[in-house]
Amino acid sequence: MSGLVMPALNAQTIARRDEIIADMKIIVPGEGVVHTENGMRPFETDALTAYRQMPLVVVLPETVQQVSRILKYCHDRNIRVVPRGSGTSLSGGALPLGDAVLLVMTRFNRILDIDYANRTVTAQPGVTNLGITNSVQHEGFYYAPDPSSQIACSIGGNIAENSGGVHSLKYGLTANNVLGIEMVLMNGEVVRIGGKHLDAEGYDLLGIMTGSEGLLGVVTEVTVRILKKPETARAVLLGFPSSEQAGQCVADIIGAGIIPGGMEMMDRPAIHAAEDFVHAGYPLDVEALLIVELDGPAAEVDHLIQRVETLARANGSTTCLVSNSEAERMTFWAGRKAAFPAVGRISPDYLCMDGTIPRKELPKVLAGMRELSEKHRLRVANVFHAGDGNLHPLILYDANKDDELERAEAFGADILRLCVKVGGVLTGEHGVGVEKRDLMPEMFSEDDLNQQIRVKCAFDPNHLLNPGKVFPQLHRCAELGRMHVHRGQIAFPDIPRF
Amino acid sequence: MTRFTPTTPEEVLETVRWAAAEETPVEVLGHGSKRGIGHVTQTEHQIDLSKLTGVTLYEPEELVLSARAGTPLAEIEALLAEHNQELQFEPLDYGPLLGEAEGRGTIGGVLAANLSGPRRLKAGAARDHILGIHAVSGRGEAFKSGGRVVKNVTGYDLSKAMAGSWGTLAVVTDVTFKVMPRAETEATLVLRGLAEEQAAEAMSIAMGSSGEVASVAHLPESVTGRVLDGALRGKGSTLLRLEGFGPSVDYRFERLAALLQGRGTQGRIDGDESRKLWREIRDCRPFADGTPRPVWRVSMTPSEGHRMVMALRMEAAVDAFYDWQGGLIWLRMEAYPEAEAVRRLIAQFGGGHATLIRAHPMVRDGVPLFQPPARGLAALSQRLKEQFDPKGILNPGRMGF
Question: Which long-range contacts (CB under 8 A, 24 or more apart) does A299-306 make?
Answer without folding.
Answer: A299/B247, A299/B248, A299/B250, A299/B251, A299/B252, A300/B244, A300/B245, A300/B247, A300/B248, A300/B251, A300/B252, A301/A232, A301/A233, A301/A234, A303/B245, A303/B247, A303/B248, A304/A258, A304/A260, A304/B245, A305/A234, A305/A236
